[in-house]
Amino acid sequence: MTFELNSQNMLLNHIYKQDNIRVIDGMAKNRKCIIICSSNGIYFPNTYEEFRLKIISNDFYEGGRISSLLIEYVERIILIRDIRKSFYVTGINEKYNSIDSVLCMLKELTKGYEIITAGGSAGGYMAAIVGSRLDAKYVINAGGQWNLYKYNQVLERYDFLKEEIGNSACNKWFDLNIQLRNNKVPVFYMYGALNESDIVQVSCIADLDNIYPIAIKSSVHAQGVSTEPYLRLLCGTQDDILKIYHANKGCMVDIDSLEKQINALIEFPEGMQLSWTTTNERKQKAYIDMLYEWVKAKQNICAGKRYFGEPKVAIWGKGRYCKLLMKELEKQNIEVKCIIETQPLDKAFEGIPIVAIDNLYPDIDTIIVVPYYDIENIKDRVCRYRGDIKVVGIDEYIKCVQ
What we know:
Elements: H1 10-16, E1 21-25, E2 32-37, H2 48-57, H3 64-70, E3 76-80, H4 99-109, E4 114-120, H5 122-133, E5 138-142, H6 154-157, H7 159-162, H8 168-171, H9 176-179, E6 187-192, H10 196-203, E7 211-216, H11 227-234, H12 238-248, E8 252-253, H13 255-265, H14 280-297, H15 304-308, E9 313-316, H16 320-331, E10 336-340, E11 348-349, E12 352-355, E13 366-369, H17 375-385, E14 390-393, H18 394-400
Parallel strand pairs: 2-3, 2-4, 4-5, 5-6, 6-7, 7-8, 9-10, 9-13, 10-12, 13-14
Antiparallel strand pairs: 1-3, 11-12
Helix pairs in contact: 11-13, 14-18
């Protein structure tokens, strides 16, 4: 059933009455505050089931995982979301029901703080507004829109936006070129240089001096970086941001190259360690190597049962490689009982239930790990809950059938 984004949607109206903001007080006393604005991707597709799962059941905000890593190093983290998917034009809730009222509220919450704002797509759009109006140190923006009049006909397709076209208090935000023209807050703007809508949007701010665009060689809208470089960007300085911009000015940069630059240039705060993070380049190489071994293994008769016996299997990690593994195990009549994720946001994948490790089925005796490059950390996490389970990487499984 379609989840209509309009004022007749009673469930949407009910959650719009809630706060839709999360304020996390960190452990540091350094007067630093990070504001992360969720995008329109906080739930997708637009269905009742997805809305109930992501927003009601999981109370999802983009930036939640990053917040857990930053909590010891900043004094305050603020997460906001626009459940109406109206580019924040109708605010975040009934009380703060416009961009201006949200700005007033955030101004009070951040008084006396040094601010960094961040977000992607519609979240990047709002991060640019908030950062510019609250005099942030800088803004991290992944593919945020600059001109809604020129973005995929959203003013005609989105009911909440359509209703405000004639409202000057709202439509003044539809073209940020006007709103940000004399602003000096640096905006580090990453975008997909092969994505048609991103190309149109970046052309809208060609004459703004405070926007520092990074053209990423990607056709993905709102192309950003992975967890480690994103975290480093949030912990950096204006000088760091400008150095990265000037190193890539006027050219199209590969995402792995950009991540390497960020990781090499920006240091973490003292004591911060991310042993579980992996760069896109390392992941890509690991999966290429794994697929090569898998193709070789297909030349032989599968011997998974000889290796595992009669296991009760769970797979750690979903996605296309998980799907391939499930099909391979099905051929051997090995049943996959569940899929494990660190922070499950979906109930199932390809009909198989998704669970967190602390809710693992008691009869599971074997876990096959798809992100095998992180196998040691995953083994440690499994051991905290179930020391009796056999944990093997997908690479080890492939080798066993050769």
